[in-house]
């Protein structure tokens, strides 16, 4: 990261930042005071010389993140709702094309300025106010980290139990689970933190080889099940229970929002990765080639493999761990184990450790480094008891993911409105780290961003509702008049926050008020 040796401040009147021929910006030596309480080596802009992630690096990052167990079950879950395979794959493809747009818009600030998500949020929310969106994002990431780690630990346990002929599942129980399952969970937890402790370059190298390895593993699984089935099975010919008429659209739009919400977290903190990009072309092409294509191909692959499992075993097996456990030789089991292990590590570290590590560092930059933030994330991911969240899907889906997921759209709306409409992509880097500067607003908070966040959040989650006996919300919604908006929470939150923020900031922009570049 940035040089830790204090540099002499620039001469009076000298520019605090320089712009390269390709439009990328970096701080002038000494422009960012090293005694700033809002800066540390992990939050300062990445120097131009260290921004070298290529198109392949970003594409590999997305391939590695998209190939995970929850992604595998997305298409099969839509089929369970009554869609046929074509409708399921279409829904996932469209959702990932849509979510790619905010990814590219927020990701633009990364290679241009070399800053992570919480620092970008300072421009709109204020130096202190940026902790609000950062903590919302960190909360989701910590929860996902714990859940993915538990799922990965379960995968290791199931496959090793098959290797040892069921000996592990008969072991004594602790807390309702066999003790070897806890051992697998803790080992998997430690492995991930060990990788991220070595820094972002280690993550980049890991994703580079993990991406093709997981692709090969998924194709091998397809070849194996197709060989056993003597074909791809009857699922490809299975008609839709919904058709393309009035029964389809009430299922399609909530499902589309759910698929968008799957990666809405990364649409906020993608600058955490693009800040290492060697240019806009690398991040735009890398993300465009990596996200929608990979998710669509993986969805199709999961449908084909599930189809084969139905032909072989008489019932569809949606979970890849359960299917891999049916391999009839030790080599096949170990190969499946390594593939699932690599797939889960690649998504969990990139999607659920990097962001909260930066977000927590933003709380107290002088006390919390990136590595410390990653360790805190790992600890919180255990303390939320992810095994309990898995046991109660109503609490997990409708309370935590549903409410917080709706709020993520409002943060994206504020960030995009501020960076693209209000500032026209122009930021003063040094001021993002300086108290009482142009992004200080009122005591470090921009009330306009908070109002836009609150308005978007109210409309996004105010109508949250549950079926009788299936969740904590009233059947008619918390605020009944908003109940029809609940299934479109991410889009409603993003659109509302965008409009409200622009309306509140536009007069200040025209008067060149402090805080508006």
From TrEMBL:
The keyword Flavoprotein does not apply. It comes from the Bacteria. It is a multi-pass membrane protein. Its main location: membrane. GO terms for molecular function: nucleobase transmembrane transporter activity. The chain crosses the membrane at residues 58-81, 87-105, 179-197, 209-226, 246-268, 289-309, 329-351, 372-390, 396-422, 445-465, 485-504. It holds the Pfam family Transp_cyt_pur. It is found in: Membrane. Residues 1-24 are annotated as: Disordered. Keywords: Membrane, Transmembrane, Transmembrane helix, Transport. One of its GO terms (cellular component) is plasma membrane. PANTHER family: NCS1 FAMILY PURINE/PYRIMIDINE TRANSPORTER, PURINE-URACIL PERMEASE NCS1. Belongs to the purine-cytosine permease (2.A.39) family. This is NCS1 family nucleobase:cation symporter-1. It comes from Streptomyces spectabilis.
